[in-house]
Amino acid sequence: MAPGTHTVTNQAPPLVGYDMFASDAALAEAVERHLPQDVHDEAREELTALGVSAGSAQAQEWGRLANEYPPRLRTHDRFGNRIDEVEFHPAWHRLLGRGVGAGLAGAAWGRPGGHVRRAAAFLLASQVEAGHGCPLSMTHAAVPALRAEPELAAAWEPLLASRVYEQGLRPPLEKAGVLLGMGMTEKQGGSDVRANTTRAEPLAADGEYVLTGHKWFCSAPMSDGFLVLAQASPATGGDGPTCFLVPRVLPDGTRNAFAVQRLKDKLGNRSNASAEVEFDGSTWARRVGEEGRGIRTIIGMVAATRLDCVLGSAALMRQAVTQAVHHASYRSAFGGLLVDKPLMRNVLADLALESEAATVLGLRLAAAYDADTDAERALLRIAVPAAKYWVTKRCTPVVAEALECLGGNGYVEESGLPRLLRESPLNSIWEGAGNVQALDVLRALQREPQALNAFLTEVGRARGADHRLDRAIRDLLAELADLEGIEARARRLVERMARVLQGALLVRWAPPEVADAFCASRLGGDWGAAFGTLPHTLDLATVVERARAVV
Fold first, then answer.
1. Predicted TM-score (pTM) of this structure
2. Predicted pLDDT at 237
3. Which of 91, 387, 533, 544 is the most exposed place for a label (fewest CB within 10 A)?
């Protein structure tokens, strides 16, 4: 044996070189289920190629490097001129280029089955590295907002939908493809965007303004443009937040006044830059939609990014569970493989249930975007915030328990699990934290009865298939009928709605072993306060086997 080498025994080999798409039974089945028949073959080919790429050693290394060498802000050039540029490691650009090339930016809108195909691809790409999903998500979500201004949409939408990634700041309309960011949050406002103080003053040309203000969180500041909210001048009749498009580079090639004051030092999401930016009174912007109707204009973007939060959390859960099952399939202890030990199998099956339920729900909501009917839009209105609330909150405990399955091996950086754990709270916070989502569901219940009808129709499709689901639906109806203290009960109510919806979808579409275990634990109450407390009489081996990566 050569000096410095040794043989590692009783350790799982690195989980690389596998097809991430083919290994995810829940995802592959959802894609087949929700796509039109005539695009199945093309979609399967695209997702297989992305799954192989995502599962490769090269992609995993890109993800590691993008986080180990986070972005750096350069405010000035060597001559003292303000440039406000963010530098990224080449691995970040490779990941982002692959994501744009896979259609994860704005390519889903108007494409047959486009949202289901993109959701599946986003779930795969986010398992490799979550941070680069941020600019992809915002670029995708900006499309419905820009459509409020047809002239802008005609110029920008083809560039958002492009599969060409061009890094660097140049006039956007001269590039082959662009990325868009978003800046709504301010120091004093947070989720209460009506409290924002950024001001917009009109210029002589119709629809053109200059902005003055400070954005406390501006995501992906290297993007080509940003959708922001600002208060239109009362002198022009503006009486509320208005949506604006702020390009980084103006049509004549000069830089817009867009001062990046600092990058945020975040818990996770290290590869992705989040910044504080300043508009100095000369920042040029183009109005999107009507003055004073900015929240209505941008709400479509918010809804789409919230669904991406669900998909991003589903991706983190899926990768964490995959790693845990992979480790347990090779690691021996006390005379046998961990995966065959009844207690470890219970833990792995419990985690796998949470992961599969999140995936099935996320893909169902993506299919609703593709259908684009009144009923499906009503379902999205209530199901997206409910799913955003519940799935994103389940992410951190799932990842933490999966890490524990690897023992001390999971606690070291080389395993990749610490990065997943640092990332896991993010989607619950971004695009409105838990209380915001729960209150949004209450608003839909109180103001849009068609949303509740669509929700009840969806869960009602599974009625009669499982007595525990039927009882959970009855209990939910009773809770919905009781308005006393409804705001204080909002989290409890929304959690129940999300679980019932997940149970209904699994009863209809998942293997009986999965649906049975979910209904027994999540709906039937035969479950403890920690993972690994499923009823021992269930077929847990089948549930775990569905989560195993095919290497």
1. 0.96
2. 53
3. 533
